[in-house]
Structures are given as C-alpha cells and as structure tokens.
Amino acid sequence: MATQHSRTAARIMMAPAVTLLLGWMLVPLIMTLYFSFKKYLPLRGGDLGWVGFDNYVRFVSSSAFWPSVTATLIIVGGVLLITICLGVLLAILLDQPMWGQGIVRILIIAPFFVMPTVSSLVWKNMFMDPNYGLLSHLWEFFGAEPVQWMSQAALPSIIIIVSWQWLPFATLILLTAIQSLDSEQLEASEMDGASTLRRFWHIILPHLSRAITVVLLIQTIFLLSIFAEIFVTTGGAFGSKTLSYLIFQRVLESQNVGLGSAGGVYAIILANIVAIFLMRIVGKNLDN
Amino acid sequence: MARAVSSRRKSINTALAWGIGLIIFFPILWTILTSFKTEGQAIADPPIFLFFDWTLENYSIVQERSDYMRFLWNSVIIAGGSTLLGIIIAVPAAWSMAFVPSKRTKDILMWMLSTKMLPAVGVLYPIYLLFIKLGLLDSLFGLVIVLMLINLPIIIWMLYTYFKEIPGEILEAARMDGASLKSEILYVLTPMAIPGIASTILLNVILAWNEAFWTLNLTAANAGPLTAFIASYSSPEGLFYAKLSAASTMAIAPILILGWFSQKQLVRGLTFGAVK
Fold first, then answer.
1. Could you state, in order of their start, the residue ranges of all structural domains in chain A?
2. CA gap B161, A72 in Å, rounded
3. How far is it, in rounded angstroms, from Cα A217 to Cα B275?
4. What is the CA angle B7-B9-B14, rounded to 5?
5. In 3D, which of B271, B5, B23, B18 has the Cα closest to residue A93?
6. B49-72: buried (b, 16+ CB within 10 Å) or exposed (e) per residue?
7. Which residues numbered 147-186 in B keep a CB inside 8 Å of some CB on A?
8. If you measure CA to CA, which chain B residue comes closest to A170?
C-alpha cells in the first residue's frame, strides 16, 4: 500500500547509500581504466603519455604473469578442496548427537575470528619455523627431516594457513544447511536399510549442493584477493606470488602504475566472472 | 519418532568431535600459552605445554615497545566508526527497500552486492592517490570511510533480510491508526528491528577489525590498527615468540569473544541470505 508520498520518502532514504556506493565503484574504476592506458611512473617521470593497449600486452607477456596465475589457481583450488571436503565431513559430524556440542562449535569456529596477520605470523613462526616450529618438532619426533616450510613449500604453507582460516566458515554454512535437512527423510531411508554411504551420496550431498556452491563462490571471491597471508609470510617469494600480489607489487612497490592498473583490470574481469554465478544464486533466492 | 541413538555411538561422536575441535583450536591455545612463557621456554626443545613459569612480562614489554594501547584505540575507532557510520547510512536504505519495494529494488540490491565483488587490488592505486591528494593517507578518518564503504553492501543486505521478516501488516495497522512516518519508524519499526541491527553491528565490527588489505596499505605510524601492529612483528629480531604471542593474544582476544556471540549472524551476513 505504498503511496506516492512514501515512494518519494523511500527514494530520499536510499539516496545516500546509492550515491556513496556509486561513487566508490565508479571513481576508482574509471581511474584504473584511465591509468591502464598510460605509461605512468610516479617516481620516474610521472605521466609519460598514452600507450594504448601496451600495458595489457606487457602485463600478460611478463615472465611473472603465468607463474602468478598458476600460484593463484593452486592456492584457490587447494583451499577450496580442503575446506569444502573437510567442511562437509565436519558439518555431518557436528550434526550428530554428542555431549558439549556448543563448545566444540566454538572451538571450530574460532579461527575465523583471528585477524589474517596474526594467523599468518603464528603459523609461520611458531608452527612452520624449521628450527623452533612445533611442526618441525613433530617431524623430528617421527624421525623425519624437518621441512623448510616457507622456502621449500611456500604454496602448501599458504594453503594450510588460509584453509585453517576458512574451514570454520565452510563448516558453519554447511552445518546450517544440514540442519535444515528433513530428518524424517533420513530416518525413512535408514529404515529401508540404506547404508551410511548411500545416504550420504543420495540424500545429504544433493541437499548440500546449493550450500556448497555458495561456499565455493564466496570463498573464491575472497581467496582471489588474499593479501596479508602472503605479505607477512613470504612477501611473494618462493613461487607464492599470486595475481593480486603481483598487481600490488607493480603498483606500490615498483610504482609502475600503468602496468599495475592493466593487471587490476584483468583482476576485476576475473572476479566479475565468478561474481556473476554467485549473484545468480543469490538473486534466485531473493525471488522466493 | 525420536531417533534412538546408542550411547556408544554418542560417545564416539563426542570423542571424535572434541578431538578435531581441539586440533583446530590448538594454534590459538598454543599462542595464548606461549604468551605467558619466557622467551627461552617458548622455544624449548621438547616444547613445554603447561608446566612453565607463568609470567606476564611479555605483555608489559609489548606495551612498552610498541604502544599497544594506541593501536588498540585505532582499531576501536576504525571498526566502531566505520560500522556506526555504515548503519546510519544503511538503515534508511534497507528500510525503504524492505517496506516500499519498487520494481527496481531487486536490481539495486544485486548491484550493491556486486560492488562488494570489486577486487581491492584493482582499485588500490586510485584510492591511494586520492588519499594522498586529500591528505587522508595514514588518517583514522580516511580508513573509517574506506572500511565503511567496503562493508556497506553487507550491512544493507543484512538489514534488508532482517527487515523483510518484520510483518508489513503491523506497519499498515499503525498507518491506519494515523501514525506519521516518523512515529512509525520510531515506535513501531525500531523496537522490532533492534535485534537485527545489533547482529549487523556485531558482524561488521568483526569484519572491520580483521580487515587487512586497506589497513596495511593506507596506514603508517599514525593511524595503524592492530593488523598493522602485528604485521610489524613479521621481521623479527632475536628471540620473539613469547612477545609475538602476547601481541597476538591482545590483538585477537576482544574480537574472539565478540565472535562467539555472532555465529548465527555470520552465516546470514556472509552468504547474503543465500543460506539460512
């Protein structure tokens, strides 16, 4: 029963939020596009004129580009695989009757609230340090040679740290989804004599498919731009330079803004491809 | 019909879940324990778990050496300020979309969500440049604005999903009784919306507290929050595990406690209502 009066009021109430977000989106985006077509070196001559698509070509043909794409894919893929597989198993476990379920939930969720710089430094020094880290003590205990985590296994190290941060998120969302599963359906299948594995494949997993997709897409968007986890651990060395870290280095460290901006445009396009799928799911949900 | 669960199965579940829970929690526990050790004990081989000389020394050293209180204050201002400002801007917007929806409401919501997908690194230099030009680099005000903007879509979405659950009939009844728009918002809507607003504030304080891209790139000595405070421990000098642990514990303790209250809101807020 919206009147003309309330419609006008509604427009006025939305105006600040819409204006701010529009500015926040358009101004930097246009500036990035503008810089990406320029040779722009703030510390070495400043604006050196238009160069067309030169930056775009140079960004993808630089020797650092393909390794950074590979590193990004390995990190994002590895973290997704670990968090979703373990997340499904953990969610199923947490859904079972047990004593002290609330406390276990708290323990498992806790890593999500640890700021990225803390989790990265704690893992790097207190667990993965080749001399004093707990993991190297563990390796020695089993008579193995301690791993030089950050230099010999930079990508696995980062995958472990980031997975630890995101497993709680995946678990929590999948648990929420599992709890909405109709328990009568499960009971019925149990009575029909369906094995645990069959119930998992034919009832639980299909029921979770939507939640898994949501976790996958949201995590991908966040994982494509992980920064602190690399910044304070390897600083991009030892093959751990992701696409977004490479852009960061081009822009702020070597101050080649034109080249970095072209990379930024690639990153924006990539993120948007993922976002379209996520938005479709969210949008469908909005209708009902 | 309740599912009959044998107590044996329940015991196995309990043991397994607690075991996994403790493993996942262990890095945090270990950090907290190490913060009470001396530097020598922190790197002892074999590692000492509980039986060490408990000391608070590290906490006072960290405070003296790097002025923890200032970073904490910056974190409080940035996280609190950006969230409050965001709420002030988002409540009217979410209110109007939830109660006076138009044909374009869905498109606007989706567009707002899409701004959240913009990778920060893609717009790093423009923001950096604007900050220099406007004198906002390393200022609390600048960071409050940026963090408010990156979290605004989440705030609006969360409030929208909460407001949507308030039955519209109540508002219509109030209107029939002759309530003005102002009293409608003040006396009818606000009391019903407070739980949702509180949850939204909680989740966004956490997100802003832990944000570690803009806070690292746009601050230096002056406006650095706790994320930057911890990052300064990434190039260590000498023995520093116990001090790193004390600093880390101080950085995460406030938010860990808040976080435990926000489990439910976490799902709603971070999936944009796609999983409930």
1. 65-240
2. 34
3. 13
4. 90
5. B18
6. eeebeeeeebbeebbeebebebbb
7. 149, 152-153, 156, 172, 175, 181
8. B267
* ipTM of this complex: 0.87
Q: Is B75 on the interface with A (CB under 8 A)?
A: no
Average pLDDT over chain A, rounded to an integer: 88
Distance from CA of B38 to the nearest CA of A (A): 14
Mutate to test the interface with A, among B111, B117, B158 (most CBs of A within 10 A): B117
Which amino acid is located at B23 in the chain? Answer: I
Residue ranges of domains in chain B:
1-66+235-251, 68-232
Q: Which two tokens stand for residue A207?
A: 């029921």
Nearest to A148 by CA among A138, A140, A136: A136
For domain A65-240, which CATH number applies: 1.10.3720.10, 3.20.20.110, 3.40.190.10, 3.40.50.12240? 1.10.3720.10
Query: How near does any CA of chain B get to the CA of A236, in Å?
Result: 14
* Exposure class string for A157-179: b at 16+ Cβ within 10 A, else e: bbbbbbbbbbbbbbbbbbbbbbe
Token pair listed for A118: 């803390």
Residue A35 near residue A257 (C-beta atoms within 8 A) = yes
C-alpha–C-alpha distance, residues B184 and B166, integer Å: 13
Which residue reads 């039955």 in tokens?
B167
CA distances, A282 to each of A37, A180, B116 (Å):
35, 18, 14
Q: What is the mean pLDDT of each run of 10 residues along chain B (276 residues)?
A: 68 93 95 90 80 86 84 94 96 89 87 86 90 92 94 90 81 77 76 84 90 90 88 73 90 85 73 69
Q: How far is B156 from chain A (nearest CA, A)?
A: 9
Architecture of domain B68-232: Orthogonal Bundle (1.10)
**What is B60-125 written as a DSSP string?**
HHHHHHH-HHHHHHHHHHHHHHHHHHHHHHHHHHHHHHHHS--TTHHHHHHHHHHHHTS-GGGGHH
User: What is the per-residue pLDDT for A287?
Assistant: 64
* Cα–Cα distance for residue pair B219/B143, rounded to 1 Å: 8
Provide the 3-class DSSP secondary structure of residue B46.
Answer: coil
Maximum Cα–Cα distance across chain B: 76
- Tokens representing B116 are 């959240």
Name which of B36, B81, B27, B73 is nearest B58 in CA terms.
B36
Q: What is the mean pLDDT of each run of 10 residues along chain A (288 residues)?
A: 73 91 93 92 84 91 91 94 95 90 89 92 90 87 86 92 94 88 75 80 85 87 88 88 92 89 92 84 72
**Amino acid at position B212, single letter:** A
**Side chain identity at residue A260, one-letter code:** G
The pLDDT score that the predictor gives to residue B4 is 56
Tally Cβ neighbours within 10 Å of residue A225.
22
